[in-house]
Amino acid sequence: MPVLRIESPRQSAGTVIQLPEPTELVERLNWFVRLRWRASAAILGVVLLASALEIVTAKTTLVALGLAHLLGNVAFSAIAKRVSGTTSRQVLQNLLTVQILFDLAMLMYLLHFAGGADNPFMMLSVFHMAFAGMLLPLRKALAIGVFTGLLYALMVLAETSGVLAHYPLLIGHAGQVPVPPSLWSSPLYIVGYIAAYSLTGLGVIVFVHDLVHRIREAEALRRQHEQLAQARERLARIGSLVAGVAHTIRNPLHGVLSCIDMLQQRIDRQDGSAAEILDLMTEGVNRIENVTSRLLVLARETPTPSVPVDIGLLVQDAMQFAEVRARARGVEVHLEIQEVPQLPVNTERLTDAVSNVIDNAIDACTAKDSVTVRIQPTPAPLEGVRIEVADTGAGIAEDEIARIFEPFFTTKPVGEGTGLGLAITRQVVEDHDGDIRVTSLLGSGTTICIDLPLKPTARAA
């Protein structure tokens, strides 16, 4: 469901972290395949070198495993070429999981035939667990960590108990088979060794996953602040422009209204056609005057004195005009009020903002639809009042929801909307140090939440 949230700086800690998009997962998949080509080359190189130096005993088996790892990456490379950004997130995560498990299984086989637990390259498996923590959801990454710990424990226990043959490394023993260290005969040491390895792997997974999460959170917050700064800069430029236009239009409008007023005083009211024309002219000029007034609000050229106000009564006042339009359209309007504290707000501007939201909700509805307005405390830990307007109307398309607060953008037919209502609402909410969130699903309705703090900053006052 598309969601658009315009937050004040005090709400920054609530940034929502979006899951990686399929295109990002495809890039991760290809990156992992490229990384494995290098790993395969390194494995074959180390195995051939160890065989030439007579360090390992299972030479043929190790070379075969190195080639199997290379062939496995050929298969993964072919699969990676078939997927695209349209592949589901779940399928791509499963492919990454299979790749990591394949690499871990191959590493365990290689190490078993090259010294087992005696081989210091065993710690390479920590890299795979770091990859799991970086590339996969935490639950899957931890499952891989548990699997690796169990696989490693089985290998160590099987070798130390004699169930599996031990293939020692022949380093510094002049061709003689080395005697296992006496520590390996201690069950307590074996258990501690396995526990240390498993806990290290799980710790790496949690650390890397948390680090990546924090990086993604910081990146999401940075993008959000950039978008907010760009939007405010755009509004500032528009505000300067519209303020000049509004002042330029407003002065001659006042003159025209004065002339019409004088004509209405002199004209013979029995001449119905002339009186009707003057009434239409008055109505038209008043509409233009109303638009210029709204433009000046958008340009922040109106003072914003604040006094403590009962928000419930304010919303009821805003609904009085809306209820008439709702009855004419056959739309039911409901009001639900909980006990909330008084807030220091600019009554006129906030009433106008709430009226804009309610009017838009009614306009989005047809007969038998409904609009519900709720007044309730903001959820903890915030202190303030939430004004929620929910309708069961047409909803907003996903490609349009990001633009609904832009000045002059409207989805209404030509002549039925100026595109200034929600832009002014956003401006008023920001001036009161609040935030506004829109949730909508095309064909199922829209919900707009306005959260106003109990103690706005000096900027809001």
Keywords:
3 domains, Heat Shock Protein 90, two-stranded antiparallel sheet, six-stranded mixed beta sheet, single chain, 59% helix, 461 residues, 10% strand, alpha+beta, 8 strands, 11 helices
Q: Can you give a write-up of this model?
A:
By secondary structure, this protein is α+β, with helices and mostly antiparallel strands. The chain folds into 3 domains: 7-223, no CATH class; 229-298; 307-453, Heat Shock Protein 90. Helices cover 59% and strands 10% of the residues. It is built from 11 helices and 8 strands. The protein has a 6-stranded mixed beta sheet, with helices on one face. A two-stranded antiparallel ribbon has the order 2-4. Helix 7 crosses helix 11 and helix 8 packs parallel to helix 9 (347-363). The longest helix is centred in the middle third of the chain and has 80 residues, at 187-266. The chain is elongated and about 120 Å long. The model is unreliable at 7-17 (pLDDT under 50).
